[in-house]
């Protein structure tokens, strides 16, 4: 599916076993051959299996089965299996398990929001923000993609989004038209997104032809007012609903005219449960 970023495995192991596994070492069982399996204990979208496998291989184990990230994994589904010395299996056990549980939680919630949004329109897109916990971005992005979402912004370097806070330094909303024209000239291959905070501002900014209007904390009813007003004027930016959008209300926003759901909700989803079994081979 993708390559594992350099340094990720070392970072994971440094957190959990920087100086090895004291218990396994003092028991003297490190050289015993064994097998480890990871099985979905509840329904989930598998994620993090490739990284967990890479971690075990790094420790000297051999992976014998990997369910690809993004796969549906009903309860009882085998996610990953590996063989190797007990020292390797014990050292990688919890890091691999926790990684898959956390990533699968994000992927599963993302898929749920996508499914909810698409009950209202089959082309609705769920775009996740960059508000994941610090230092987890690589894995969080992969989990969003595994769940069928897209990234709203991976980082500040690759997207244009004008916030209200930018307008403060521009002299206010009266400068937005000139700013959009300047951006079209200096970054012609990029979409221009503008955040708006009320219907009046949304209609005014839409007249300057941004590609996307990001409607911050609008109600579904307010979004409909904006959608209808812009349709009457023949102005058609993509409407993105942002701020407090989740699986419970995504369909309502899409029904009222949003085609993009901007959300951070998947990052706060509970981890999915993964059962681990270690046996002597």
TrEMBL record:
Domain of life: Bacteria
Family label: Belongs to the NadC/ModD family.
Domain Quinolinate phosphoribosyl transferase N-terminal: 21-104
Domain Quinolinate phosphoribosyl transferase C-terminal: 106-275
A GO BP annotation: NAD+ biosynthetic process
Family annotation (Pfam families): QRPTase_C, QRPTase_N
GO MF term (any one): nicotinate-nucleotide diphosphorylase (carboxylating) activity
Keyword Glycosyltransferase belongs to the record: yes
Gene Ontology cellular component list: cytoplasm
The protein, known as: Putative pyrophosphorylase ModD
Keywords: Glycosyltransferase, Transferase
Family matches, as SUPFAM superfamilies: Nicotinate/Quinolinate PRTase C-terminal domain-like (SSF51690), Nicotinate/Quinolinate PRTase N-terminal domain-like (SSF54675)
Record-linked InterPro entries: Aldolase_TIM (IPR013785), ModD (IPR006242), NadC/ModD (IPR027277), Nicotinate_pribotase-like_C (IPR036068), Quinolinate_PRibosylTase_N_sf (IPR037128), Quinolinate_PRibosylTrfase_C (IPR002638), Quinolinate_PRibosylTrfase_N (IPR022412)
Organism annotation: Gluconacetobacter johannae
């Amino acid at each position: 599916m993708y390559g594992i970023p350099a340094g990720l495995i070392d970072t994971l192991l440094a957190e959990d076993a920087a100086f090895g596994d004291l218990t396994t070492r003092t028991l003297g069982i490190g050289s015993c051959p064994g097998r480890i399996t990871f099985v979905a204990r509840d329904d989930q979208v598998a994620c993090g299996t490739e990284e967990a496998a890479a971690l075990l291989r790094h420790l000297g184990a051999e992976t014998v089965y990997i369910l690809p990230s993004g796969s549906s994994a009903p309860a009882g589904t085998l996610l990953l299996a590996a063989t190797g010395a007990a020292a390797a299996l014990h050292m990688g056990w919890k890091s691999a398990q926790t990684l898959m549980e956390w990533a699968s939680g994000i992927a599963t919630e993302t898929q749920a929001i996508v499914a909810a949004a698409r009950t209202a329109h089959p082309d609705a897109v769920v775009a996740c923000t960059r508000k994941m916990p610090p230092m987890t971005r690589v894995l969080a992005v992969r989990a969003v993609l595994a769940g069928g979402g897209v990234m709203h912004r991976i980082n500040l370097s690759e997207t244009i989004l004008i916030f209200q806070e930018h307008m403060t330094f521009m002299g206010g909303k009266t400068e937005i038209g000139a700013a959009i024209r300047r951006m079209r000239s200096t970054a012609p291959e990029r979409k221009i997104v503008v955040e708006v905070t009320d219907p009046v501002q949304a209609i005014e900014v839409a007249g300057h032809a941004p590609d996307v209007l990001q409607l911050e904390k609008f109600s579904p009813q307010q979004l409909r007012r904006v959608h209808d007003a812009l349709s009457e004027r023949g102005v058609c930016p993509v409407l993105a609903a942002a701020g407090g959008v989740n699986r419970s209300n995504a369909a309502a926003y899409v029904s009222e005219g949003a085609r993009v759901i901007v959300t951070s909700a998947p990052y706060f989803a509970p981890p999915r449960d993964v059962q681990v079994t270690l046996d002597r081979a």
